[in-house]
Structures are given as structure tokens and as C-alpha cells.
Amino acid sequence: MQTLVRVTAAEALHGRVVRVTLSDGLVRELDLSGLLTGVLGVLDDDARFSTVGVDQVSGTVCWPGGIDLEPAVLHGDFAAASGIRPRLVREYRMQSAT
């Protein structure tokens, strides 16, 4: 049985790039600018974009106002409902403490 991946940390970087840390140790820096159309267009603002956080219940990236992104999309497993994937800027894995 495959475990669902969850976001454990999120941080806005420069522009519309967000760094997400996922429960499997994967860290991805993703440019979300291509996704910020339609309903997500409200995030195309420096002050609003910088309010990114993690919803501890659903385990995903979120912004005030109920905006969130699917963890599997951020992990790179699927495209967003729009068919557009975030542009990968950087990716690495956290090393285990063992």
C-alpha cells in the first residue's frame, strides 16, 4: 500500500517560487507562476503569495482564503486540474538522521 505524501513545510522564496518539504523527505522549489490564473490569480501578488503556509489537517500548501494545492501535484506525481505542472527550479532529498 502506497502512503500518501503530505507537505510538512512551505516557504515563499523569490518571485512566485515556493519551497515545499514533503513527508517522504523530498524538497522541491517550484515556480508556480504558470498556475496563477483564474481562481489562483489572486496569489499573483507579492504580499499575498508570501502568506503561504501548511494546512496541518490536509497536509498541503495553503494560503488564507481557502486556497490550497494538491500535495501529489507538488510532489510531481500529477498535473494540476488545469493540466499545468509547476516548473521545477530545484529538487533534493533531506538526509535521514540515522
Written account of the structure:
- The protein is mostly beta strands and 98 residues long.
- The protein has one domain (7-92): NE0471-like N-terminal domain (NE0471 N-terminal domain-like, 2-Layer Sandwich).
- It is 9% helix and 36% strand.
- The chain has helices at residues 46-49, 71-75, and strands at 7-12, 17-22, 26-31, 53-55, 60-63, 67-69, 87-93.
- The protein has a four-stranded antiparallel sheet.
- The model has no long low-confidence stretch (mean pLDDT 89).
Q: Classify the beta-strand content into a percent band.
A: 35-45%
Low-pLDDT stretches are none
Question: What pattern of helices and strands is seen along the backbone?
Answer: EEEHEEEHE
How confident overall, as mean pLDDT? 89
DSSP strand count? 7
Please give the alpha-carbon distance between the first and last residues. Answer: 24 Å
Count every helix, treating DSSP H or I runs of 4 or more residues as helices: 2
* Main sheet attributes: strand count, strand direction, barrel closure: 4 strands, antiparallel
What's the number of structural domains? 1
Supply the helix-strand structural class.
mainly beta
Strand order of the largest sheet: 1-2-3-7
* Fraction of residues in helix: under 10%
**CATH architectural type:** 2-Layer Sandwich
CATH homologous superfamily - what is it?
NE0471-like N-terminal domain
Radius of gyration: 13 Å
Task: Write the CATH fold name.
Answer: NE0471 N-terminal domain-like
From the spread of the alpha carbons, the general shape counts as: globular
- Would you state the CATH class? Alpha Beta
